[in-house]
Amino acid sequence: VYTETVDVSELWACGASNNTGSATGQLKDQIIEMFDHAYGSYMKYAYPADELMPLSCRGRVRGQEPNRGDIDDSLGKKAMTDVRLDNDVVVSVFETNIRVLGGLLGAHVMADLLRQRGGRMQWYRDELLHMAKELGHRLLPAFNTTSGLPYPKVNLRYGVLNPLSRTGTESDTCTACAGTMILEFAALSRLSGDSIFEEHARKALDVLWQRRQKGSDLVGTVINIHNEEWVRRESGVGAGIDSYYEYLMKAYILLGDNVFLDRFNIHYSAIMKYISQPPLLLNVHMHNPTVSVRSWMDSLLAFFPGLQVLRGDLKPAIETHEMLYQVTKQHKFLPEAFTTEFRVHWGQHLLRPEFAESTYYLYKATGDPYYLRVGQSIVEKLNAYARVPCGFAAVQDVRTGTHEDRMDSFFLAEMFKYLYLLFTDKSQLPIDIDDYIFTTEAHLLPVSLSTTQPPCRGNNTTVPVSKEEDLFTHTCPSMETLFPNNPSFAKTIRDSYKYLTGVGRAFHPLPIRCVDKQPLQSAARKTFNAPKRVSTVHKGVYRVKLVAEVSHTAEEDEVMPHVVQLISPPFLGRTVLTAGPAKFGLDLTKQEHGASPYTACEPIDGAVDLKGHIALALRGECMFVVKARWLQQAGAIGVIFIDHREGSNSQDTPLFQMVGDGDSTKDITLPFVFLFSREGAVLTAALEEHHNVDVLLLPKERQLGGPTLEFVLENQELFLKEEEEEEEEPGGPQKPQQGQFGSKASDQSKQCSADSSQSANSDRGPDASP
Ligand code: DMJ
């Protein structure tokens, strides 16, 4: 959208370096060398496997390596016999679309261009397009739902509903998963002449648009593909939603259809009103968007400044990008998740390209050589901390620098492309880059598709958008309009955020957010131009307290892993499930509570099954604290919450701390922990088989082992004996219970907790916790 021609070498020369005409050249060479190292390693050690394992120097072949759960759904055995698209393999519809279909289409477009220019590729007979079409047809069964929202997974050979497909039971999908099809599917329709793909992608977008929260104009993170109800109602611009917004904007650019821009503009206004608190991007409730639902940001949101550049909204783009840069300075790379005070929340770094992508867009928009230096720092860090003999390895934890045996394909498809383009003047490129739009996986599709191809049958989007237009609805404002007489506007903006993460100068976001209530009550909307900034002193303003997550102490920022340790036979302490803690209730990290977990007992007073037991409760529908109070009142002595999202697990998803509702939680005194659904399934399976299972809830670092465990188990045996004797002696005196955090999780308590969560569901709104 910004098409200024900038002489990179000259600008670089204006920057810090004196000898920089050659600096960009050297960097370009370095980036090519890095790409060769990464791609060459893949070809040498991994091809035809799906991905390279850069530490083992071999390929990752699905089924031959330990299953990594959902991550593996992005692998399709696609290169097993060079390329087969009909393997009996369940793949992610979203990932296969953006990685494989997008890759085939982008490659076809380039091959076709070379062929047309004469010389090279004269042998090419649209083979890649034919493969793309076949793959498109293999993805189509996923759209066989009454709503039109696609299933998240499909079996490439058997589709979704075939008994052999091993998929089709899923009921939910993420917003980005359903809303990131239009670029590839429309391109496929227009290149192949078959409108069916574009029709399906448009229908899915129509549903998401219709199901947006009409008051806030925000969407949630996960939606039910059958009844179109939101399953997770938190709203942000990162994981789960990100490329839905990206594709609305880019669908307008690629297809020239105003409906996508209109929708994007309306969502964008909402994002700027509720989610963007420069330099932060928060997550809020779609129904109650003045409430922030978590105190951390995920690294996927780093693409957003780039999208803001496409929108022409440079100021917040510069602000957020600067914040991200400071985080990378502090931690070398963007951690997968980091707190609003820029501490590590989840230390993994998967070599994600989003920060490089935004850096590229900002440089092209501003021409400020500062962004070349940012790019240079990305290159240096990759070489210093991720380069290994067989490629580049993801970082398991930015705090320790340990590597992971993983190099995702987006590292090749996106990272090097954005870095190379950052340092290359567009006149040096073999194509006019402004004639193309990048898919979310950085594959190039030509914007000529909107005009040179006949419109597809049935590609009219059915859901109208009412809107007000202004000067910038369809065009980007020029720099002079945005920043009159200030050629160093970018620096001026950045300077306010210079010391964001510096010691002793931590940035403190506003604990109170003032939001004009009117837009929530009225359907009237304004097309975004300059976002109406939140004013702190404003007549008629509605003051809403952000859940006090944004100003907390260092200890609270770091989520301390907890565990649920199964100690009764046959587990004997060997089954340990990683769990997340709660910000309310009994603090399990306090030494005085944990030293002798079996000594502080609570009496059982009453015949209710739940009493004296640790309860299991399913997450969802209402807030954690509502369930916590209910279960506490019923006599439970602790609660294990279990995630309701199928397949979630503590390896792939960062632990988080369950939070209260903003009001005092002093009345809640029980211990609470949270298990993702895979870990939860281990526990419920154990309960099904053994009915009573003794568990400890405790911080991971104090997990029992060795002599302590033996001692506990000895006492446990004694306790069990006493219990057996007691059972033989009806009406005998009750034995002391095992303590506040070591107790039985029984099938009875499961029953009680299930009931509890059901009744808790009905009386409050959706769960505010992430
Ligand atoms: C890429 O696969 C795509 O950009 C996707 O939209 C989200 N991010 C990953 C890489 O981090």
UniProtKB/TrEMBL annotation:
Cofactor(s) recorded for this entry are:
Ca(2+)
EC number in record: 3.2.1.-
Family affiliation: Belongs to the glycosyl hydrolase 47 family.
Q: Does the keyword Chaperone apply?
A: no
**Where does it primarily localize?**
endoplasmic reticulum
Q: Where in the cell is it found?
A: Endoplasmic reticulum
Q: Which residues bind Ca(2+)?
A: T440
Name-wise, this protein is: alpha-1,2-Mannosidase
- Domain PA intervals: 597-681
What phylogenetic lineage does the species belong to? Eukaryota, Metazoa, Chordata, Craniata, Vertebrata
Q: Name one GO cellular component term.
A: membrane
A single GO BP: carbohydrate metabolic process
Q: Which residues catalyse the reaction?
A: E95 (proton donor), D242, E336 (proton donor), E354
- What is the native source organism of this protein? Gasterosteus aculeatus aculeatus (three-spined stickleback)
Compositional bias segments (type: Polar residues)? 743-762
Q: Which InterPro entries match?
A: 6hp_glycosidase-like_sf (IPR012341), EDEM1/2/3 (IPR044674), Glyco_hydro_47 (IPR001382), PA_dom_sf (IPR046450), PA_domain (IPR003137), Seven-hairpin_glycosidases (IPR036026)
Swiss-Prot/TrEMBL keywords: Calcium, Endoplasmic reticulum, Glycoprotein, Glycosidase, Hydrolase, Metal-binding, Unfolded protein response
The record ties this protein, via SUPFAM superfamilies, to: PA domain, Seven-hairpin glycosidases
Biased composition, class Low complexity, residue ranges:
731-742
Query: Per its UniProt entry, which superkingdom is the organism in?
Result: Eukaryota
UniProt region (Disordered), positions on chain: 719-770
- A Pfam family per the record: Glyco_hydro_47
Question: Annotated Gene Ontology MF terms?
Answer: calcium ion binding; mannosyl-oligosaccharide 1,2-alpha-mannosidase activity
